[in-house]
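Section 5.1 Outputs to date
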Amino acid sequence: MVDINDLTEIMNLAYAAKSRLYEIAENYGKPVQLVLHWSAGLYTQYSWSDYHINIDGDGDVHITGRDFAESLPHSYMKNAASIGITLDCAYGATTEDLGDYPPTEEQIEAMAKVIAVLSEALAIEIDIQHVPSHSEHADNADGYIVDFRDYTGFPHNQYGVQANCERWDLQRIRMTDEWTTDYDDPMSGPNQIRSLARAFRQKFYGH
């Protein structure tokens, strides 16, 4: 399993990018964010360049974008001041069946630890505004409202689980979880991950 000492490089890269991330965020009128994804690929495919950080099926963390202030194309129209973190999994997953490559416990724990470290380095809260999933991003549920109606084709300006479900990354992380379109539900995947990340931040940093 990933240890806090294994994430020192991520901490240092976050510190190096911090001032630029906040400057970009101010220019866009948004918070600095960590955006949570899955790749819809295999556990062993961990070099996706759309994300700053890839986490493979064993929970090993791979830095694929070393400049955390660089906008990478992980979320449509919402990449400014956003660090993209993905679990390399979910090939063939549907809302009814996560298939042969569901998120592993090792991946979920590693993602939570990465969030804890980055949130500490960047001085951000672990909440939906600062640490949304791609689905929450796609539905503008993070509070950073972007007008992409021409893209979604939906008058309510969403393309996540509350609309056409085009993006539902991590909304369900285990088949034992009940499927929910309620982002406030504590058992939704992103809320489970954020809760675990807050526990790790408390353990690592005491707050």
